[in-house]
Design goal:
This protein is mostly helical and 293 residues long. Helices cover 56% and strands 0% of the residues. The protein contains 12 helices and no strands. Residues 93-104 have a biased composition (Basic and acidic residues).
Length: 293
């Protein structure tokens, strides 16, 4: 076994050990617990662990997004060193993974004077950009190069907030669309912890279950204007968690939300709340750990 094959075997083993199945089982248990508490709370105003359960579900779902991104990046690394996921040499002729959604720094700049690869697909579909276009009601358009200056999710959130506060929808859509997929997904981790505090400032007290209707009235119209393609359950789920309520029931015919939906929604709702409050994103957001409250 060569050194490359040995490294490939270790990477595959690491990918297989990612606890995706255990996390799915935990989310299923959280769902069962939520349903039971929903039934019990029909006769009681006592929260009985609902805030803690909602926060745990939120953190578990965020962890799921992070694990899926890690799994994709490990598969991309195997392809980069010439191995497929099963250990066989990767067929170069069919390796056409979108550069836009590759991990940052993986795509080397072209050599001076070198033209584009004649075999490269010029309009390859990029799942993050495609989904952003669907959510924003725009067209995917010609493939853009990702903005390498946006190195982390906090910088992307700052740009999202700036676009919303400036009333520039095109700028907002462009910033989201040009982000790397892993940067965009990170919005689902950094924005939700801020939302409860911002909603509390808007309401004048920490959000409660009976504030859900008001938050919907305050935010729904502007969010729909910015994200006309957003499925309604995504915003409802986010707002119920802000109010520390169990998420709404998902019907048997409803699909699991797209991985990009909660991330984009969390970033946009953060911007809308800051705009309603007349504030910019705090500078110390870049340096502090998100609140777990």
């Amino acid at each position: 076994m060569s050194i490359v094959e040995d490294i490939g075997a270790q990477v595959r083993a690491a990918a297989e050990e990612l606890p995706l199945a255990q996390l799915a089982a935990a989310l299923e248990k959280f769902g069962q617990a939520t349903e039971r508490l929903r039934w019990v709370r029909q006769e009681s105003a006592n929260p009985m662990g609902v805030p803690e359960l909602s926060a745990a579900t939120e953190h578990a779902e965020t962890a799921g997004y992070a694990l899926r991104v890690a799994q994709e990046q490990l598969s991309a690394y195997l392809a980069a060193i010439g191995l497929a996921a099963d250990g066989a040499p990767a067929p170069k002729a069919t390796d056409r993974r979108p550069k836009h959604d590759a991990p940052r720094g993986e795509v080397a700049p072209p050599a001076p004077g070198a033209g584009p690869d004649r075999d490269e697909q010029p309009a390859v579909r990029r799942w993050w950009a495609v989904r952003v276009a669907e959510l924003t009601g725009g067209r995917e358009g010609a493939p853009d190069e990702p903005d390498e200056r946006v190195e982390d999710s906090r910088e992307l959130l700052r740009r999202v907030v700036t676009g919303i506060r400036a009333g520039d929808r095109d700028r907002l859509h462009r910033e989201l669309r040009r982000a790397h997929a892993d940067v965009g997904l990170g919005l689902a981790a950094i924005a939700p912890p801020m939302l409860r505090g911002l909603a509390g400032e808007l309401l004048g007290h920490p959000p409660r279950a009976d504030d859900l209707g008001r938050l919907r009235r305050e935010l729904d119209g502007r969010v729909r204007d910015l994200l006309p393609g957003l499925p309604p359950p995504v915003l409802d789920t986010l707002l119920t968690r802000v109010c520390r309520m169990p998420p709404p029931r998902r019907g048997a015919d409803q699909e699991q939300p797209h991985a990009a939906d909660p991330a984009v929604t969390a970033g946009v709702v953060t911007g809308v709340l800051l705009d309603r409050l007349g504030r910019d994103l705090p500078r110390d957001t870049d340096d502090r750990e998100p609140s777990r409250g």
